[in-house]
Design goal:
The chain is mainly beta. Helices cover 11% and strands 41% of the residues.
């Protein structure tokens, strides 16, 4: 009899645990994610940006994920009083002669019950010079770019065309919404980390030479705006599908300086790699036989080859140029 009662009691306890688990799963508390330790990040800064580990020890929470349409309470402006945030989008079906498609539009962006945008406008963020193409419809984010400044931000994601996803940041101060700038990618992307010390990182589209990507560092400036850190060196992502070769003689610099020594790498069909860039004018090229140097670009893919301006595709084979 005691054995039977024990078995019944164990079953009841198990059902209770299952019920508790189900209640936890249906709660409306916002989802969160951890970020790398900002103190460790500041200990050593590599010459070039490399992807940081997202498995570092727990640190002050810098990203809070909130489902669209849910209200979130937090002190945004550091005045000691909780603010009530509500961001939402809606989907409308656009129909025409022989076509139909769904379009995501802004439905609300409110703080403490006050409308921060005119959701009925075709371009509700035009005053900030922002034109969203495809607002992400699942989540908005409460972020803390600098855990020491006492304020937080509201971040929303736009899934733009040609895989150009950006996260835009806003701060609330004096009853008004202020635009801080953007980072490429979204908080749910690999290598998107807010370190909580005024710096962050994300994978970006590199702006010179060809169509490629790399992980770059962002920082909050003295004006409170977030932008790419100046003067950084970015290590481009590896592309195992491309095998570029040099097909034309190329004059390269020994340093990132137009006054530095130059030498010529022969266009003999050797395999090459492009290992570093400043994302502005310079790209480092290295051949399989050990030669290396810096290429100077006057514009996106226009290389200064010993005083002659040539396109990168005229000098190298198997580059990538996406439309």
């Amino acid at each position: 009899m005691k054995k039977l009662l024990a078995m019944i009691l164990a079953a009841v306890l198990a059902l209770g645990l299952v019920a508790c688990g189900e209640e936890t799963e249906t709660t409306t508390a916002p989802e969160t994610e951890s970020v790398a330790d900002p103190s460790r990040e500041s200990e050593s800064t590599p010459e070039a940006t490399e992807p940081q580990s997202t498995t570092a020890a727990a640190v002050p929470q810098t990203v809070i994920k909130v489902r669209m349409g849910d209200t979130y309470k937090t002190d945004l402006d550091g005045d000691g009083t909780e603010d009530e945030v509500l961001v939402n989008v809606k989907t409308e079906t656009v129909q025409g002669d022989g076509y139909s498609y769904d379009e995501t539009k802004w439905d609300s962006f409110e703080i403490n019950g006050k409308k921060m945008i005119d959701a009925k406008s075709d371009e509700p963020f035009a005053e900030f010079q922002i034109w969203y193409e495809y607002p992400a419809g699942d989540y908005y984010y409460i972020t803390d770019l600098d855990v020491n400044d006492g304020v937080k931000e509201i971040a929303v994601v736009d899934n733009g065309s040609n895989d150009w996803t950006v996260t835009t940041f806003f701060r609330y101060a004096g009853g008004k919404l202020n635009y801080l700038g953007y980072m490429e990618s979204s908080p749910d992307s690999d290598n998107f980390i807010l370190f909580g010390n005024g710096t962050a990182q994300a994978r970006i589209h590199i702006q010179v030479f060809q169509t490629w990507n790399g992980v770059a560092v962002y920082e909050v400036g003295a004006d409170g705006k977030i932008a790419l850190k100046k003067g950084q060196i970015i290590i481009p992502d590896k592309n195992d599908y491309l095998h570029p070769t040099i097909k034309k003689d190329l004059t390269v610099y020994s340093e990132m300086d137009n006054a530095s020594a130059t030498h010529v790498i022969k266009g003999d069909g050797s395999a090459v790699e492009f290992t570093q860039t400043d994302n502005e004018h310079w790209v480092k090229v290295e051949t399989k036989n050990g030669e290396s140097g810096w290429i100077y670009l006057v514009e996106w893919s226009q290389v200064d080859n010993g005083g002659t301006i040539e396109y990168s595709s005229d000098i190298f084979d198997d580059l990538l140029f996406a439309g």
